[in-house]
Amino acid sequence: MTSPVDTTVDTPDWRALPTRGQRAEARLAAFWRFISRVALGVGILVALWGGAIALFDVPIFVAPGPLDTWQAFVEQGDRLFGALGFTLTGVAIGLALAVAIALSLGVIFTLSAPASRAFMPLVIGLRTVPVLAVAPLLIMIFGRGQGTTVATVVIVGFFPIMVNAMRGFRSVSPTVHELFHVAGATWWQLLIKARIPFALPFFFTGLRVATTSALLSAMLAEWLSGAPGIGRLIYDALGYRDMPLMFAAVALSMATAFTIFGLATALERRLAR
Q: What is the mean pLDDT of residues 81-86?
């Protein structure tokens, strides 16, 4: 006589799963851990900076210390943040256009091999031309204002986004392709429901690269065109040997680049969950 078979199924204890409040507390704790690590790193960097200035008795017209730089930051805060706002406006507009152009070209080159073979060399050639070489032409076309900054950001920023987006669009497995083909999906449905979700991690990789280089390229465009941004402020401060102001502007631009990179990373984690 056989023993009865146990047909009971173990059900998960949903009470053991973290609640919404517990997840929020975990995210808040992770955020404060991140802030504490950043503060520790900045504190060590400032201590080494101030110690080197004091140890080698560096004069202020060569390199200011942290206190002189902070004083310039406080006294010239309105000027610094006004210039930064001008630069960030150009960066935001340029990155938006770069994303639109990069994704459009990525889709076209992914779906059409002849288009990719015909126009990809031109795109690569445009990207490899140094910005310094095309800057005079950009200034003649767009003037000495925001237009040159936006055009420079687009030229520098669209290529890494496009290349990574194409890798993502092409990363869809043959099994998924076959499944959509059997279901009678159109190319548009395949793009929306398969290619774009697969491409999100690749897209954000390119976006992180583009965001950091976009700020640098915008500052370079301002140096060359004379637009009143943070790049021109650094150039003018160096010309007048106002080293505390220059160091304050450089520190502000570094903090801004770090913040932009962090926001791009946070957006990736939010959308890729």
A: 94
24 part of a folded domain: no
143 neighbors 156 (Cβ within 8 angstroms): no
Tokens found for residue 175: 């099994």
Exposure of 228 by Cβ count < 10 A (0-12 exposed, 13-18 middle, 19+ buried)? middle
For 214-240, what is the mean pLDDT? Answer: 90
Q: How far is the C-alpha of 211 from the C-alpha of 103, rounded, in Å?
A: 16
Distance, in Å, from the CA atom of 209 to the CA atom of 160, rounded to the nearest integer, reads: 7
What does the alpha-carbon distance between residue 185 and residue 97 come to, in Å, rounded to a whole number? 30
DSSP alpha helix (H) spans, 57-186: 66-75, 77-111, 113-128, 131-142, 146-169, 174-182
Tell me whether residue 258 is in a domain. yes
**Cα–Cα distance measured from residue 267 to residue 247, given in angstroms and rounded to the nearest whole number:** 30
Q: What radius of gyration, in Å, describes the C-alpha atoms of the chain?
A: 26
CB 222 within 8 A of CB 234: no
Question: Is 43 within the bounds of a domain?
Answer: no
115-147 pLDDT, tens digit each: 888 888 888 888 888 888 888 888 898 888 889
- The answer to whether position 82 is within a domain reads yes
Alpha-carbon distance 245 to 258, whole Å? Answer: 20
Helices 77-111 and 230-239 cross at an angle (nearest 10°) of: 130
Counting the structural domains of the chain, the total is 1
